[in-house]
Structure to design on (232 residues):
């Protein structure tokens, strides 16, 4: 059994000033699996309903997705190269009618992401070094994106979730990393629920409740709040 690790999280004022809103929490004692037939049936039904209402125009003009793009533009990051995770998932659903299956922990937060338009992620706490801070990058950080064959250079001025080893665990709300990806051996996760100026805190709270409820139903675990953005 992995040893319990303390974990704290905070956000720099510079990132908060961009309008980024977060609820971050941890879940411990999880049992991950490749899939579950009951979750698959639930997810297929939910995806069919979401897909029925998706159009290219709706995705282009969705206020939450649009605000993520606006933030990227304000900090000088191309929206062609940096697409918010929720938008990337919705584009996949729009084009294919379904989402890729990874494992239960990942599939659950991906479903909640397309339901809410919020950017969600889970990170294996056993592979996090120290505490995590959401801050602006200075270019000295290590960044090994999920699915990449090698580390990538970090551009100064972007924001990222960074641990005390100065390693990025999530770049913007766009890309997670090899180091902390959720696998079948993951038992404890640090969860991110991220919105923007177009998402009242109540939206983040509802998404968090949905995420915790589904995760506990299919993977067990206990949740502990680490951070909630100040009230609107």
């Amino acid at each position: 059994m992995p040893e319990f690790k303390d974990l704290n999280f905070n956000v720099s004022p510079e990132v908060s000033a961009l309008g980024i809103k977060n609820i971050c929490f941890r879940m411990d004692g999880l049992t991950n699996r490749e899939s579950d037939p009951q979750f698959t049936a639930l997810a297929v039904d939910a995806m069919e309903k979401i897909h029925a209402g998706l159009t290219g125009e709706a995705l282009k003009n969705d206020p939450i997705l649009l605000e993520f793009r606006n933030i990227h533009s304000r900090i000088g990051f191309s929206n062609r190269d940096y697409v918010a995770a929720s938008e990337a998932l919705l584009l996949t659903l729009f084009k294919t009618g379904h989402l890729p299956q990874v494992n239960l922990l990942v599939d659950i937060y991906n479903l909640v992401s397309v339901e809410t338009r919020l950017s969600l992620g889970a990170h294996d706490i056993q592979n996090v070094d120290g505490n995590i801070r959401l801050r602006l990058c200075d270019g000295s950080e290590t960044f090994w994106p999920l699915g990449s064959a090698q580390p990538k250079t970090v551009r100064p001025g972007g924001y990222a979730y960074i641990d005390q080893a100065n390693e990025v665990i999530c770049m913007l709300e766009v890309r997670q990393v090899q180091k902390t990806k959720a696998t079948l051996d993951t038992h404890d996760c640090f969860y991110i629920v991220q919105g923007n100026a177009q998402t009242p805190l109540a939206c983040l709270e509802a998404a968090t409740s949905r995420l915790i409820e589904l995760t506990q139903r299919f993977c067990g675990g206990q949740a502990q709040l680490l951070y909630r953005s100040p009230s609107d």
The chain has a mean pLDDT of 96. The first strand starts at residue 9 and ends at 11.
